[in-house]
Specification:
By secondary structure, this protein is α+β, with helices and mostly antiparallel strands. The protein has one domain. Helices cover about 65% and strands about 10% of the residues. A four-stranded antiparallel sheet has the order 2-1-3-4. A hairpin with a 2-residue loop joins β1 and β2. The termini are far apart.
Length: about 120
C-alpha cells in the first residue's frame, strides 16, 4: 500500500513539473514572437529615451533587457510590463513609429500582437 502511495505521489509531482515546463515553453515562445514582431518591422523606428533605433537594434535591446530581468520575467505579460513598455532608467514609454508616420506606444503594439497570436492558436 505504501508503495502505491509513493508511486502516486511521484506521478503527481512529475505531472505538475511537466505541466509547468510546458507553460514555461509556451510563454518563452510568446516572448520570442513579440521580439520577432519588432525585429521584422521594416522601416519602423523604435523610440527609446528620445532616440530612434532601427528594428534589429530594438530587438537586440529587448533581448538584453529580458536577459537582465532573469527569473523576474516568466510570461509574455511580464515581458511587456518589465521589458517592452518603458525605459527602466527614465520611465519614459517606448514608442514605435511606422513607415506611414503613425506612432504607438510599444506596450499597445505588444498587447495587440498577443491578442493576434491568441486568435491564431486553437
Amino acid at each position: 500500500m505504501n508503495k502505491i502511495i509513493a508511486i502516486l505521489i511521484v506521478f503527481i509531482v512529475l505531472l505538475v513539473a511537466v505541466r509547468a515546463f510546458a507553460q514555461d515553453s509556451l510563454e518563452a515562445a510568446k516572448i520570442r514572437y513579440l521580439i520577432a514582431s519588432v525585429a521584422t518591422l521594416e522601416g519602423a523606428k523604435f523610440i527609446r529615451n528620445g532616440s530612434e533605433y532601427d528594428a534589429p537594434s530594438a530587438a537586440d535591446h529587448l533581448r538584453l533587457k529580458l536577459k537582465n530581468a532573469g527569473k523576474r520575467v516568466r510570461t509574455a505579460e511580464e515581458f511587456i510590463k518589465f521589458c517592452g513598455s518603458k525605459s527602466s532608467m527614465s520611465g519614459e514609454p517606448y514608442l514605435i513609429r511606422f513607415t506611414d508616420g503613425t506612432t504607438v506606444k510599444a506596450e499597445v503594439f505588444f498587447r495587440k500582437k498577443l491578442l493576434e497570436l491568441a486568435k491564431d492558436r486553437p
